[in-house]
């Protein structure tokens, strides 16, 4: 058995871990008044006390975890289980991160200094990140924040579609915008389009079905997810023409998922922190919009839907993205590339995942990535223990043969 | 001039300050290893360093504030202005709060231990708060979290309205639910209903216009805001009958806005932290729903609209509401009652606000509260300096006469 390992973008990852970002802890010096914490001390101590609860060093308790016998229960690292996280599981992921302190008075009001719902510091960091990574040209584009990219996708549909004539009964020449995407697509596109039973937009399924209709008088909105979810392909719009508007979902257009050949520079670009740092639970996404009128319609949607985006979440995104930017973002993305794409080259090993499974190595089938099952993707962003174990098992498998 | 001051609920308050909740800071003891902070130290120091920036003791800089000359700018307390917050303004509010620390790894995934998007610890604290305050019966009701009550209001409309028949063109017997509210109403009700151009629901204005129609075959959804925004009245539904569904917006049903005569116990009750502690920027609200099917439809809406509510925000709400609960929530609400309702009793003082303005005292006109302008509401939840100043000015005014 010959083994070829090369870098491969990771898809399907619901939790990418910010593993290279290690917090620099500053040792406490007695008598150094500069280091005396005041209002944040109790909160910091409580957080550390909770975080230090038993958990065997392989998990952490959280203030908002369900308590067991009055104490917050351990949330084990993905490698560990059991009440105190002492049971090692085969399936691990590294886990570290950037801490932050939120004061009781932080950003209580609805808006920021400029009257908007957007932290301009966070905006700056986001624009800088795209510049450093080289994955998007944000110049001359307006920015919007949403509760994940999810909320922004819907803002885009509402923003791009038209209002029906007053007292519309279905007999006028007006027709709803046809919302489409290429199969396989992210199911939320359809769910969001369907849920309002809107006269302004209607789900019409696979984009390719409408290829020949696209210079008709009907309006189309096409979702283009690139790289695509779930199959990772780089996508282009299927429909073109003056009656077609395109929503570009670039959730996965980061160096740990794909090669960044060129900065994207489209009219409506949507990103999310979920697939960038793995902080899906924060619900934070952003959109760049070229057209002023569209930007305003989307902004209005976000105001009406939730009066902007949580300030707590914006502060957290700021802290996280500043961490990502350290060392020109190399920490996260170079680490994130570390995936193995393994091929079983013996003729009889047609089912490579099975061969590896038998040897105690779990990978993701090549077919998931539209390759054959001669291939397996190995996840290497785990603990050193796991990596050593993987090497030992593969070594044993190769020696056996 | 005789002065009568009695407790009055505050309405219109966009920012209620959690002033009684003072963080207990624990003094640092050298050599006490228990007090050594580890991973949270740098974040805590950074937050304190930023928070301690100049600002003359009358404001705070924030990590996500716009920097001036490379340093985060001061956000002055509402009483102060100027670059370094050294300029005292007449219109002050006290400002304190509860701090929290968020680790880099806090709740990165989409869901909590039970697979939901809801922190069960926060749920417990919310139910306990209603029990202690006595403003709502939450027993036997499902809970939902939203991005402010705003998102929940829309979830309720979608959840309560029906799907039109497939390929509906307006000629069937199906008709959209008529969404109504009593004038004056919160404008977001109308905006949310209008923005989707939905076949399922339609804005129909003032509830009283439909009073005689309400036992027709048409469906109605009525928003009942009690106490009402903006006028503070305790409200009851205008429409009744089997074809009417009611959304109760209880944003202001707390002891600092109104007397709590009885715990509310309705089918669909919506609350928000914005009007409870003043943390509008956090975007956090919750709903209690009696009917299982409605709860599931609303939950589905929240999933599709934003994949649940930010975990960072939920942690902050937990910390804030735990603070509110200290001392059986007396701190916040007894303090919150401290408003003055002042009446000018001399015949010639028909414009009481003007009389006070001339004496350098700013209040809110009685007419705002549907009383006459013989009355003024004085805001007493300000700094001790301000309170002393108010007493001095009123004393001077009375002596003058």
From TrEMBL, chains A, B:
Residues 38-92 form the Alliinase EGF-like domain. Its cofactor is pyridoxal 5'-phosphate. Residues 1-31 form the signal peptide. Coiled coil: none annotated. It holds the Pfam family EGF_alliinase. InterPro entries: Alliinase_C, Alliinase_N_sf, EGF_alliinase, Ethylene_sulfur-biosynth, PyrdxlP-dep_Trfase, PyrdxlP-dep_Trfase_major, PyrdxlP-dep_Trfase_small. Residues 97-328, 334-397 form the Alliinase C-terminal domain. The keyword Plastid does not apply. GO terms for molecular function: carbon-sulfur lyase activity; transaminase activity. Keywords: Pyridoxal phosphate, Signal. GO terms for biological process: amino acid metabolic process. Belongs to the alliinase family. PANTHER family: BIFUNCTIONAL ASPARTATE AMINOTRANSFERASE AND GLUTAMATE/ASPARTATE-PREPHENATE AMINOTRANSFERASE-RELATED, TRYPTOPHAN AMINOTRANSFERASE-RELATED PROTEIN 3. This is Alliinase.
